[in-house]
C-alpha cells in the first residue's frame, strides 16, 4: 500500500448496508480518529457525523435491498481527518434540496436532520451523487487544539 | 439496547441501556407505544437516559415522535433524566430541549411532572 | 454486497502495515464481534488474537517496507465468528515450525508467542502461506454460552 | 501510552497509562532502560499496571526483557502492581507469573521488595 501524497495513514472499511453495522462503522472510525489529538467531545462529534452518513447509506441508498457501504478514513500529513462514506445506490436527485435542514424523502419516519448534524459537527461536508450510481459524502475535521499544518 | 419500563402514578418511566440509533430506535418506539396503549392513565414520559452513551438523528426522531404523542394525545410532559454529555449536546443541537425538560435525578423528574401538570 | 452462503454479516478492513493500526484493527474487530453473544473475557481474547495476527503482518510480512493488511471478519448464520488476517508479504517458509511455541525468526526482539496466544484464545487457527505471495491466518471462535447451531 | 517513572529507595516505580502492544512496547523499554542507566541504586522494578487495559505478546516481551535485566544485572525483583483482569490473564498465559509477583497496592509492592531482598 503506497499511501497517496499527503496522506499519513488510512483505513478502509467495507460492510453490508445493515442497521447493526452503523455502530460498528462509527466506533471503528472514532478509534482511528483517536490517532489525532481530538478531544472526547470532538470524537463524539465524529461518531455522530459518521453515524448519520452511514445510516443514510443504509436507509436511502439501496431501498429494500442490501448493498455495500465503503468508508475511507485518512489522516493527512497536516493532521486533518478526511472521511469518505461511499455507496453504489440510487443517488440523490437534488443534493442542494437534500442538504436543507428538515428536508427528508421519508417524512413519515425521518427527521431530515442527518446532513444538518454532519454540517454542525464537522469542519466541511461535501456531497457528490449521481442517479443510479451512488453517493459519496466527504467529511473533514481537524482537532481544534492542534490546527492543521499546511 | 435493553429497555425497562414501569409506571409510577401517571408517569411512564422508560430506562434504556445502550446506544440509541437506527438499529435500536424502533425497539424504543415500539415499547413506548405498547406501554401507552396498555394504560390510558399514563400522561407523562420520563426517559431515563443514564445508560445511553450515544444518540444520533435516528434516536432523536424516535424521541420526538414520543413527545408528539405524549403532548398532543395525553397533554403530558416528557422529561429526559440525566442524559450524558454527548447525548445532552445532541438533544440541544436538535432543538429538542424546547420540548423536553431535563432532570438530574428521578426524584426531580417526578417532582417536575407533579408540579405543572399542564403542557409547559 | 451479496453475502456468501452461510454468512449473516461481514466487514472488511484494509490498512497499511503500521504499528499504530494494530490497536485500530483489534478494537474494530471486537466491536464487530460484539454482535454475537460473547462475554467480556471472550472479547478480550479475540482482541489479543487479532493483535497477534496483525502484529505479525506488520513486523514479519513486509520487512522494512509498508504493505497492505486486510482483515475479513464474518459472522456465520450458525453464530460463529470467522476472522481472516491477510497480507501479501514474504510468507512463512515453514509454517509448522513457525507455529511452535517460542519459535521466532527474530529472537533478539520477539518471543515467538504470537501463534501460541492465537491457539490459546481462539477455537481454531489455520495458517496458509506461500513464499513471496503472503500469509492468510484464519481464526474461529463461537461464544461459549451459545454453542454454534449447524 | 503515557509513562511516568519515579524512584523510591532502591525501587523504580513505572506507571503506564494505555495499551501495551507493538506500537507502545518500545517506549516502555527505552524508558526503563534510561532510568536504570541513570541510577545504579535501582534494584527492583514495580510496574504500576492499573492504567493498562490491554497487553499482547509484544508487551509481554517488553516486560520479560526488563525482568531479565533486573534479575540478572541487579539481583532484584519485578512486581506487577494491580494488573486488570485481561492483563492478568495474559501474564498468566505467558507464564510470566513465575518471574513477576503481583501486588494489589503500592504499599504491598514496596513491602514485597523490602522483605525478601534476594531473588525469590
Ligand atoms: N446515501 C444516500 N443515498 C440516497 N439518498 C440519500 C442518501 N443520503 C441522503 N439521501 C437523501 O437526502 C435526504 C436528507 O438526508 P438527511 O438530512 O440525512 O435526512 P434523513 O436521513 O432523516 O431523511 C434523505 O431523506 C434522502 O432522500
Ligand atoms: N504474516 C507473517 N508473514 C511472515 N512471517 C510470519 C508471519 N506471521 C508469522 N511469521 C513467522 O512466524 C514466526 C512465529 O510467529 P509468532 O508465533 O507470532 O512469534 P513472533 O511474532 O514473536 O516472532 C515469526 O517469527 C515469523 O518468522
Could you explain how this protein is built, in words?
The complex is a heterotetramer, with two copies of chain A (150 residues) and two copies of chain B (120 residues). With 150 residues, chain A is an alpha+beta fold. Helices cover 32% and strands 27% of the residues of chain A. Chain A has a five-stranded antiparallel sheet with strand order 1-2-3-5-4, covered by helices on one side. Chain A has one domain: Histidine kinase-like ATPase, C-terminal domain (Heat Shock Protein 90, 2-Layer Sandwich), CATH 3.30.565.10. The two termini of chain A are 24 Å apart. With 120 residues, chain B is α/β, with parallel strands linked by helices. Helix content of chain B is 42%, strand content 25%. Chain B has a five-stranded mixed sheet with strand order 1-2-3-4-5, with helices on both faces. Strand 1 of chain A pairs antiparallel with strand 1 of chain C. The site of one adenosine-5'-diphosphate has 22 residues of chain A, from helix 2 and helix 4.
Task: Write a short abstract of this structure.
Chain A is 32% helix and 27% strand.
Number of separate domains of chain A: 1
Global mean pLDDT of chain A: 95
Oligomeric organization of the protein chains: heterotetramer
| End-to-end separation of chain A | 24 Å
Helical residue percent band of chain A: 25-40%
Helix and strand content put the structural class of chain B at: alpha/beta
Secondary-structure class of chain A: alpha+beta
Protein chains sharing the most extensive interface: A-C, 25 and 25 residues
Largest sheet of chain B: 5 strands, mixed
Strands of chain A, total number: 5
**Unreliable parts of chain B:** none
What small molecules does the structure contain? adenosine-5'-diphosphate
Amino acid at each position: 500500500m503506497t499511501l497517496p501524497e499527503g496522506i499519513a495513514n488510512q483505513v478502509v472499511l467495507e460492510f453490508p448496508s445493515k442497521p447493526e453495522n452503523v455502530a460498528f462503522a462509527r466506533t471503528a472510525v472514532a478509534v482511528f480518529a483517536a490517532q489525532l489529538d481530538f478531544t472526547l467531545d470532538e470524537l463524539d462529534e465524529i461518531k455522530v457525523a459518521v453515524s448519520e452518513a452511514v445510516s443514510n447509506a443504509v436507509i436511502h441508498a439501496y431501498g429494500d435491498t442490501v448493498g455495500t457501504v465503503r468508508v475511507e478514513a485518512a489522516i493527512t500529513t497536516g493532521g486533518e481527518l478526511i472521511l469518505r462514506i461511499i455507496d453504489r445506490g440510487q443517488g440523490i436527485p437534488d443534493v442542494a434540496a437534500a442538504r436543507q435542514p428538515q428536508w427528508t424523502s421519508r417524512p413519515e419516519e425521518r427527521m431530515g436532520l442527518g446532513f444538518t448534524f454532519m454540517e454542525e459537527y464537522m469542519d466541511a461536508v461535501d456531497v457528490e451523487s449521481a442517479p443510479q450510481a451512488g453517493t459519496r459524502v466527504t467529511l473533514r475535521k481537524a482537532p481544534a487544539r492542534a490546527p492543521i499544518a499546511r | 439496547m435493553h429497555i425497562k419500563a414501569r409506571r409510577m402514578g401517571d408517569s411512564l418511566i422508560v430506562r434504556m441501556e445502550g446506544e440509541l440509533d437506527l438499529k435500536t430506535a424502533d425497539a424504543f418506539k415500539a415499547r413506548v407505544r405498547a406501554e401507552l396503549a396498555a394504560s390510558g392513565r399514563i400522561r407523562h414520559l420520563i426517559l431515563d437516559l443514564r445508560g445511553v452513551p450515544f444518540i444520533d438523528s435516528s434516536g432523536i426522531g424516535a424521541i420526538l415522535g414520543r413527545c408528539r404523542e405524549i403532548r398532543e394525545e395525553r397533554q403530558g410532559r416528557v422529561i429526559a433524566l440525566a442524559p450524558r454529555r454527548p447525548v445532552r449536546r445532541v438533544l440541544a443541537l436538535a432543538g429538542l430541549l424546547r420540548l423536553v425538560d431535563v432532570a438530574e435525578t428521578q426524584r426531580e423528574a417526578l417532582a417536575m411532572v407533579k408540579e405543572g401538570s399542564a403542557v409547559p
